[in-house]
Structure formats: C-alpha cells, structure tokens
C-alpha cells in the first residue's frame, strides 16, 4: 500500500508541471494586458509600459515561464499577486480554510441526506417515498445554485430574519451557503446511491443472504451497501474536489472570500501569478483527493483491500487504478 | 465500530482545522455591551494597494482618505480647504508657501516633519498615478524654509495645482517608515496621519480601521470602521436591511425601493463627477465626418434610454462634463431625438443608403443594454449596427489600439476639469493615452493648453466652457449619462455628506 502511495505521489510531479505549463501558456496568449487592467483605463501609455517592465511582462514567453518554474521549484515561491502585492501563497492560504469549511460542510450535509434517501428509495422502489425522492433529487440537480442561494436569503434573512445574508464569520453564517451547495450534491449522491443499490440488491449473493435468514436491515446495510458504495464514493470524491476548487457562484451570492471567487477575480484581472498558483494548488488538491478516494475503496470494499494485500505480498500491481 | 470511530475522528479534525483557521469579525461588531462604536460599511470591491501613489481606484480611495491626508483637501462643493497645511500663500505664480499644522503625528507615533512632505513629492515624481497631479511641480526645487513652512515651486503657473494637491496621490507619507519596511509592506500595512489607522485587511472579505488616538484634528465618533467587501449590489441592500451593515455604498436602481420603502433606512443621492459616453473613432472614414456623428446623436432618444438602462438615476448627458463639475457650461443641453434631421444629415454626408457600423462594449450589463437599445434606434435612420461584446481585458486592448468603430465607456472627472478634458480630447493624447476618439481640434488644444496655466479663475472658466461647446458642436461623443451616487444608511447617522467624488469623510459621522 505504501509503495502504491509513493508511486502515485511521484506521478503527480509531471502532472503538476504539465498543469503549470498549460495554465501559463493559456494566460500568456489570452488577450488583455494585466498592467493596463490593474492601472485602469485612465492610466497613460508610458505609465502602463513602466508597470509592464516592473512586472516583467515585457520578457519573452520562455524566459517568463523559466523564471516562474525556477522560483517555484527552487524556492517554493509562487510569486506575488499583481493586484494586492501580497504573496500568492499567503492569498491561497488565507482563502483555503474558508473554501475547505464550506466544502466539508456541504459534502457532509449532502452525504447525510443523499445516502439514506438513496438507500430507502432503492429498497422501496416505485413507492411514494421513491417517487418523491426522485422528484426532489431532480429539482435539486436542476436548481441553479445562485437562484437557490438568493431564495434562501430572501426567506431566512429578509423575511424571517433568522440568519445573516452574507459573510462567513461563524456557524450562523455557514448554514445558508452549506445548504445551497449541499442540495445539488445531495441530489447527485441520492441518485447514484439509488441506482447503485438497485443494481446490487438484484445480485445472487443478496438473495443468498436473505435465504440464509439474515435480517433485512443486515442484508441492506452490510451486504448491499458495502458493494454499492464504490460509485457513491467516487461521486463524493469528485464533488469534494470540485468544491475545494471553490464554489464560485455560491461564494459570490453570499460574499464568501473563498478560493473560487479569488480565481474568478484573478482571471478577470489577468493576474497571472495568482491564477497559476491557484490552479496549481487546485490540481494538487485534486490529485490528493483522487488518491484518497482510491484508498477509501479498500476501506469500504473488502475485495479491493485483499487485492492491495496480495499486491504487497507478491510485489505486483494487482489493482489497476 | 473501529472504522466508524476513525471516520468521526477525521471529521472532527477537519472541522477543527477549518474553523480554527477562520478569521472572525472584530469581537465588538454586533456586541451591544462593547464600548467601542463600530461603523460597518458595505463596499463594492476589494482594495488593490494602499500605497496612494501606486494605484488609483475608488474602493481603495475611500479608505485612503481615512488613513492619509494631503496638504489641502476639497470639500463636497469642490472648494479648497485646509488639511495638513493650515494656510497657504502664492508668493508668485510659481511659488507657494504652505504653513503646516503643528503636532501632527503618523500612526506609529512619529511626528510629521518637512522631510516627510518633501519625500512624498520626491517619491511621487516617478510613480504611476502622479503623472497628472504632480506634473506642474518642480520637485527638485521644493524645500522647507522653516520648521513649519514648505515652499513648493512650480514649473509653470498652474490653475489646477490646489485641486491636484488635494488628490490622494499627493498624500503625505512617512519617509522613515517606508525606508525601514520597504515599499511592498507599506502598501499592505500603511501608516499615515489620518483619523483612522489601518488595522487589518482580509483579502476579499473586509478591511478594519480603528481610531487614531493621537489624531491632531477633531476626534472621530466611531472607534472602528469595518469595510465589508460585498460585490453584489442586492446583497449590500439586503445586509443594510437586515442590520448586517450600517451603510451600503453604490446602491443600484433595482434596490432603491427596498431602501426608500423601509422606514428604518435613509437613501442619500448626489450627482457625481462621472459621465458615460459613446466614443466615435474618427480614424474610420464614416465617423470622421461630423454630419455622420451628429446623425448618430440625433437618432438616439437619450431620455428614454437613460430611464430604461439606469432606472431613472442620474440624468441624460448634457455635454462632455457632468453638470456637477466646476466649469460646466450651463448652456449645454441634452441632444433631443430628431430622426428626420438624422436622415437628412446622413444624406448630406453622402450616405443616403445608410451605413454599417459596429459598437464595441465590455461585459458591463448597463452598457450592453444601452448598445441593444441604440442598435434598434439607429436602425430606424438607416444605420445598421452590430454589437460586439468583449471581456474587459481584451476590450481595453481593442479600444487603445483603435480597433473599434464606436464604444461605450465611462469617465470620471476630478474637481478640476482641465486635466480630465485634456486627457480625453487633446490631440497629444491620441489612442492609449486617453483620446480614443482620435479627435483633433486645434482650438480645443490651444484652449486646454492655455487653461492649464491660467491663474485667473474667471478666464479659466470661460476657456473650459468654450472647450465644451466645441466638443459638443463637433459631436465627438454621444453624451449618454451623468452619474449619480446612491448610498443607503441606517437612520440616526448624523453628519454624513455624500460627496460627488465618492471620497466620503466617514470621520464626520456621529450618532445622536
């Protein structure tokens, strides 16, 4: 297992270099001059030119990328944000806890709602509960986040006055954004759990378990759920990865200073170092979450765990991930 | 059991880690037992740099005016009033003596000296934002002539010098502090001589200021001011309504009723110095003809457009300048729609079959709305328009390279209009320097040059009025809209004056 983890970690290096090159190239060749955007339309041509020099934007493409890579690999320096003058690492570190908290709460909420509802919908297929659950999940998936956020603000902040409308300063502030983000994820998880469970409960080993006289609860929770959870974990992992990159619309609606909003603002401002640093950071997060999800498979499914074990004994790669 | 326990443990660790890293609001915000009064303001965007000589943008400017001070400042009517300098005297047209107030301290406790004043101008000599405000100052020859008198020499007589000195780019900054901490740290942790100290900047979220206890001027009422960055206009209004903030800056037309219909809130309205215009690129053959430009102006019903696009705020344009700027020519009137006259002018210009043209705009919703309505109205006189929308960065590149026919943009004047008019209408400012219409009128050029160094206010005003007349006669722009500042507050905030330049003096606000 450890060898497998190390191998995956080493494989991240070329991926991340590739990501940095693609992002750098895309930002370089998109139209728009960062110096002009930052100084504004009223700045004179010579002032813009001087600022371009100061930012090193007049250097050739390869020199700029080489300098960036050198600073990144040798000093771990992601550069300085053009707009605020603060180090990119500091900006990301300041914003990430907010994004992480929002993502964690939303996923937790989504899993707590989505998995149980999915299980019940599958075990009671075509019942009223199943139909209502399916309709609600469709609504959840279809409802745009920004609209849902605004509706929640109007009801709970303006009309009832129970919860604050924007900001992210404490538990009361977290509730509405977490519900907004969590609802659509919950719907996806519910649908995935339902279809996966439906597939599993028709398998022979479930019939066998029932024939052996095991209680329905044990059959569902132990035999069916363990096997049905693999695709659900994949969906949860992917959703978490996406949310850790920032829930852009929700962050905008609730004025949450998260990573997504930072990235969008930086792209608009052509803030190259900030975009490159942010994308690199998100890529690292994605790599780690993918790894964690792969490891979680073994935690949930004993068959995969035994494959890991046999890989350790034989020294061969038994699982193709 | 063991697995469940591990899972719960991991979740608790994640929660602790994330909540532990959260930065909460100052403890006294919303705390009724706190003795420190806090004013919470919803602002429109995050600040860039707090270095007054590096970047000039309105959100940062609103905070800079509380942290820094200039030698003189303007009041809400544009009059020059004392600030760091208690009085000033023009020894001759190019020499001014400023007598400095005593006992002024920077936020780190050090006293303001003549060296700091000289350093502020020397530092600004090559800074990006001081090219216009400091261009008349002969910086190498400025000097202290006593402990409290500063002599400023000018390269040429300048009618706008006092207004320029009131600009935040001429703020007095601490020499010793900047030299010890460096430029970059100064831009993030600035100190000035203003009534509030810059305490904390949580990027994208808020900026916290607290009262400077050794401030030399009147003691401000509020112990703390928190600027919360709330980009969405509707959210600023909702936060004001639900008590999350005490003041919401830049309320949009859609939210006006929300505030005016609430008996616990007050809406302040005041015309500002900004205009929105449609520039016509005179490098294009059709648009180099003044008859075509006039036909385009006459084809548009600006009253109804402004009503539809700006929800009745501000007013239709009456020339290149806003009517709230000093020197506005009161004879200027909004161009009334006259489709027959427009068609006639097009025929006289040799385009009886109409023309095909493009309007370029950025992804700014109100400007897009204007373009769509204008497209329809221009079609009625035979001008076929294509509306092209570009992302802001690409858009700026296009307009400064002259790659457009017509474009919609905004411009904000300072309290003195000569600098602004020069930057957008003088032929030395072609293209990327600001004159994106590529407009040339030698009389306008010479009037602007003369007004720059004219010291007689009356003569200067006449020159500015004539310039406006020429620009209007030449139909350089379609003068679309004069802006208006809208700010909502909770009731009971006394002493608040909404300024046309948006640099409101929050230190003057108090509660009864």
Please specify the SSE layout and strand pairing.
The complex is a heterodimer of chains A (321) and B (512).
Chain A: H1 2-29, H2 34-39, H3 45-55, H4 61-75, H5 88-123, H6 128-142, H7 145-159, H8 171-200, H9 204-211, H10 216-244, H11 248-253, H12 259-268, H13 272-300, H14 302-314
Chain B: H1 2-21, E1 38-43, H2 58-67, E2 72-74, E3 80-82, E4 85-92, E5 95-100, H3 114-124, E6 143-144, E7 149-153, H4 161-165, H5 175-181, H6 183-188, E8 196-202, E9 206-211, E10 224-229, H7 233-241, E11 247-248, H8 256-260, E12 265-280, H9 290-299, H10 302-310, E13 315-316, H11 339-348, E14 355-362, H12 365-379, E15 383-390, H13 392-400, E16 406-412, H14 417-425, H15 442-453, H16 457-473, E17 477-490, E18 493-494, E19 510-511
Parallel strand pairs in B: 1-10, 1-11, 14-15, 14-16
Antiparallel strand pairs in B: 2-3, 4-5, 5-7, 6-7, 8-9, 9-10, 11-17, 12-16, 12-17, 13-17, 18-19
Instruction: Please state roughly what percent of the residues of chain A sit in beta strands, choosing from under 5%, 5-15%, 15-25%, 25-35%, 35-45% or over 45%.
Output: under 5%
What general form of chain B does the structure show?
A: globular
- First-residue to last-residue Cα separation of chain B: 62 Å
Q: List how many beta strands of chain A DSSP finds.
A: 0
* Count of domains of chain A: 2
CATH architecture of the largest domain in chain A: Orthogonal Bundle
Helicity level of chain A: over 70%
Structural class of chain B: alpha+beta
What profile does the largest beta sheet of chain A have?
none
Largest interface: A-B, 59 and 59 residues
What is the overall number of helices of chain A? Answer: 14
Low-confidence stretches of chain B: none
Characterization of this structure:
The complex is a heterodimer of chains A (321) and B (512). Chain A is flat, with a radius of gyration of 24 Å. Chain A has 2 domains: 74 residues, no CATH class; 229 residues, MetI-like (MetI-like fold), CATH 1.10.3720. In chain A, 78% of the residues lie in helices and 0% in strands. In chain A, helix 5 packs antiparallel against helix 6. Chain A contains 14 helices and no strands. With 321 residues, chain A is an all-alpha fold. Chain B is an alpha+beta fold and 512 residues long. Helices cover 32% and strands 22% of the residues of chain B. Chain B has 16 helices and 19 strands. In chain B, the strands form 4 sheets. In chain B, strands 1, 8, 9, 10, 11, 12, 13, 14, 15, 16 and 17 form an 11-stranded mixed beta sheet that branches. A 4-stranded antiparallel beta sheet of chain B has the order 4-5-7-6, with helices on one face. A two-stranded antiparallel sheet of chain B has the order 2-3. In chain B, helix 10 packs antiparallel against helix 12, helix 14 runs antiparallel to helix 15 and helix 15 runs antiparallel to helix 16. The longest helix of chain B has 20 residues. The N and C termini of chain B lie far apart (62 Å). The mean pLDDT of chain B is 89. At the A-B interface, helix 2, helix 3, helix 5, helix 7 and helix 12 of A face helix 1, helix 6, helix 7, helix 13 and strand 16 of B.
């Amino acid at each position: 297992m450890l060898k497998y983890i190390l191998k995956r970690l080493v494989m991240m290096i070329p991926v991340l270099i590739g990501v940095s090159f693609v992002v750098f190239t895309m930002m370089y060749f998109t139209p728009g001059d960062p110096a002009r955007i930052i100084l504004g339309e009223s700045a004179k041509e010579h002032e813009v030119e001087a600022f371009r020099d100061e930012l090193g934007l007049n250097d050739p493409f390869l020199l700029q990328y080489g300098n960036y890579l050198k600073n990144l690999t040798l000093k771990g320096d992601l550069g300085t944000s053009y707009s605020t003058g603060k180090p990119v690492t500091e900006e990301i570190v300041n914003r990430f806890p907010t994004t992480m908290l929002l993502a964690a709460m939303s996923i937790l909420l989504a899993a707590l709602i989505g998995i149980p509802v999915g299980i019940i919908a599958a075990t009671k297929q075509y019942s009223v509960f199943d139909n209502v659950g399916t309709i609600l999940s469709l609504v959840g998936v279809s409802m745009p986040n920004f609209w849902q956020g605004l509706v929640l603000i109007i009801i709970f902040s303006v009309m009832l006055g129970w919860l604050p409308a924007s900001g992210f300063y404490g538990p009361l502030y977290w509730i509405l954004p977490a519900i907004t983000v969590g609802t659509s994820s919950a719907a996806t998880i519910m649908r995935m759990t339902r279809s996966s469970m439906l597939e599993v409960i028709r398998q022979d080993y479930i019939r066998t378990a029932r024939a052996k006289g095991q209680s329905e609860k044990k059959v569902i929770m132990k035999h069916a759920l363990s096997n049905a959870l693999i695709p659900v974990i994949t969906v949860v992992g992917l959703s978490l990865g996406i949310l850790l990159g920032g829930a852009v619309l929700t962050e905008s609606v609730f004025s949450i200073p998260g990573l997504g909003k930072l990235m969008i603002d930086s792209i608009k401002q052509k803030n190259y170092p900030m975009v490159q640093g942010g994308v690199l950071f998100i890529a690292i997060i994605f790599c780690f979450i993918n790894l964690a999800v792969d490891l979680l498979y073994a935690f949930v499914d004993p068959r995969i765990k035994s494959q890991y074990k046999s890989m350790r004994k034989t020294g061969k790669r038994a699982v193709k991930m | 059991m063991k697995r469940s326990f591990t899972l719960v443990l991991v979740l608790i660790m994640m929660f602790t880690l994330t909540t532990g890293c959260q930065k909460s609001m100052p403890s006294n915000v919303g705390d009724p037992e706190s003795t420190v009064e806090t004013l919470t303001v919803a602002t429109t965007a995050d600040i860039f740099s707090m270095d007054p000589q590096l970047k000039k943008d309105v959100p940062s400017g609103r905070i800079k005016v509380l942290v820094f001070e200039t030698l003189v400042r303007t009041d809400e009517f544009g009059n020059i009033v004392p600030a760091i300098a208690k009085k000033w005297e023009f020894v001759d047209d190019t020499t001014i003596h400023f007598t400095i107030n005593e006992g002024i301290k920077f936020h780190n406790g050090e006293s303001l000296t003549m060296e700091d004043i000289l350093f502020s101008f020397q530092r600004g000599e090559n800074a990006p934002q001081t090219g216009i405000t400091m261009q008349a100052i002969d910086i190498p020859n400025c000097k202290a002539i006593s402990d409290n008198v500063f002599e400023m020499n000018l390269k040429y007589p300048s009618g706008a010098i006092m207004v320029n000195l009131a600009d935040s780019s001429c703020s007095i900054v601490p020499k010793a502090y900047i030299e010890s901490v460096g430029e970059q740290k100064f831009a993030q942790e600035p100190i000035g001589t203003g009534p509030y100290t810059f305490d904390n900047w949580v990027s994208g979220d808020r900026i916290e200021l607290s009262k400077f206890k050794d401030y030399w001027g009147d003691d401000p009422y509020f112990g703390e001011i928190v600027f919360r960055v709330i980009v969405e206009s509707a959210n600023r209004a909702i936060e004001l309504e639900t008590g999350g903030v005490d003041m919401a800056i830049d309320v949009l037309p859609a939210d006006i009723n929300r505030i005016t219909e609430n008996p616990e809130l007050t809406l302040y309205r005041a015309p500002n110095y900004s205009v929105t215009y449609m520039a016509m690129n005179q490098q294009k053959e059709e648009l180099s003809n003044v008859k075509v430009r006039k036909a385009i102006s006459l084809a548009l019903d600006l009253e109804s457009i402004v009503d539809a696009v700006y929800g009745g705020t501000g007013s239709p344009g009456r020339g290149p300048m806003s009517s709230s700027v000093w020197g506005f020519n009161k004879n200027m009137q909004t161009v009334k729609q006259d489709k027959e006259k427009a068609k006639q002018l097009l025929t006289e210009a040799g385009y009886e079959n109409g023309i095909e043209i493009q309007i370029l705009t950025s992804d700014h919703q109100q400007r897009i709305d204007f373009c769509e309505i204008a497209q329809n109205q221009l079609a009625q006189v035979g001008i076929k328009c294509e509306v092209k929308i570009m992302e802001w960065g690409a858009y700026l590149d296009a307009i400064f390279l002259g790659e457009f026919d017509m474009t919609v943009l905004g411009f904000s004047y300072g309290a003195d209009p000569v600098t602004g008019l020069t930057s957008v209408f003088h032929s030395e400012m072609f293209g990327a320097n600001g004159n994106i219409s590529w407009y040339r009128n030698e009389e306008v050029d010479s009037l602007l040059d003369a007004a720059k160094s004219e010291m007689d206010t009356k003569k200067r005003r006449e020159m500015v009025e004539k310039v406006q007349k020429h620009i209007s006669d030449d139909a350089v722009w379609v003068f679309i809209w004069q802006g208006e500042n809208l700010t909502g507050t909770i009731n009971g905030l006394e002493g608040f004056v909404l300024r046309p330049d948006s640099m409101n003096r929050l230190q003057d606000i108090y509660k009864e």
